[in-house]
Amino acid sequence: MPQRVALLVPEFDVAGGVTGVGLFLRDVLQSTERYTPDIISLARGARDPAGSQLARPSTWARGAQMEERTWNGISYRHVGARWSEFEFQRYRSRPILTELLQEYDLIQIVAGTPPWAHLAKHVDVPVALQVATLTAVERNGQSTGNPFPLRLWRSGMKRIVSRMERRVPSLVDAIFVENAWMYDHFQERADEDIVHFAPPGIDTETYHPGDSSESNGDYILCVGRLDDSRKNVRLLFEAYARLRQHIDDAPRLVLAGLSGPTEKDWGRAETLGIRGHVEMHENVPEDELAALYRNAQLFVLSSNEEGLGLVLAEAMASGTPVVSTDCGGPSTLIEDGQTGFLVPTGDAAALADRMAHVLTYPEKARRLGQAGRERVEAEFSVEAAGERFLRVYDELLAGQAVR
Known about the structure:
The chain is an alpha/beta fold and 403 residues long. 38% of the residues lie in helices and 19% in strands. It folds into two domains: 3-201 and 381-400, 3-Layer(aba) Sandwich (Rossmann fold); 219-379, 3-Layer(aba) Sandwich (Rossmann fold). The chain is built from 14 helices and 14 strands. The strands form two sheets. Strands 3-4-2-1-5-6-7-8 form an eight-stranded mixed β-sheet, with helices on both faces. The two termini are 26 Å apart.
């Protein structure tokens, strides 16, 4: 009989990196005959309707609730939190969730940051945590342009949550990380046997190079949730403006993702004189997104912080040369000068220089794209990445886990 695995994913119905990893693991588990996965979504926001809030007295008595939901044809359960205005409350265990998790053979928490591990502290089955970054690192990449009281509140929450992170190695039986610096971080703080380098996989059949007749190579591409300040789309605009000063016929800049730049960011593009050379594609179906990747002349990522940078892996799988800020995760994917280029975070001049280099030397760009594709196929394909997780699951359920 297949063993049941609970995949805990914060706000499963919000597309993004965490949800993408959750879907990847669900597909990996379903591809075997020995595991059956279920998605359990978790409250991540202060006003989550399945939880209780101090600002809503009508919710005080009910506490955390569990709801049956469906998203993109996938049925799952969503569990709220008590007093969800306080960030740390969203990470604490609650009886309704603990009782549910006890029904499973294995718990896999898929999260951006480590404190979500506290949700399973009272569960008696093996627990694995997949994590991308640390809370402090993630928050340092966010905008500081909020009112002072809000910045003060968030600073306090960050300190509390960062303290919660210190206990995480004692709460789980396996820690999966997706970049080199997080691997080093946990190697210093946990039993080295429980730390595993296991980035999520890329569908190399969907994301593949085009042939010469298909590719038009007349645009530069950036993909992501571009209203997120961590993506630093303003840096991209500034670099692109510099690029156009040096290359008069520079390709247009194409943006794609679930959300476009903010009005202030578009205003910056207007000021720089590039607005007419930038276009936005929102909610692009996957087949169209894959075509955008493989037909691009260059892919650029300008983020302040990335756990890995799945969009980089998708571009590399598509045979497209990549230029990225060196913002944490990308250095796991990119060997500078061999499978792409890395530039310092926040440096528009350096970003523009590397973009110009790729555009000016097409043979070098072709070699970068080919090397990127080979690297993703060898180390980051669904098959290669999925096997890393399955091997650890097998060991945990064979009784080799110690917590």
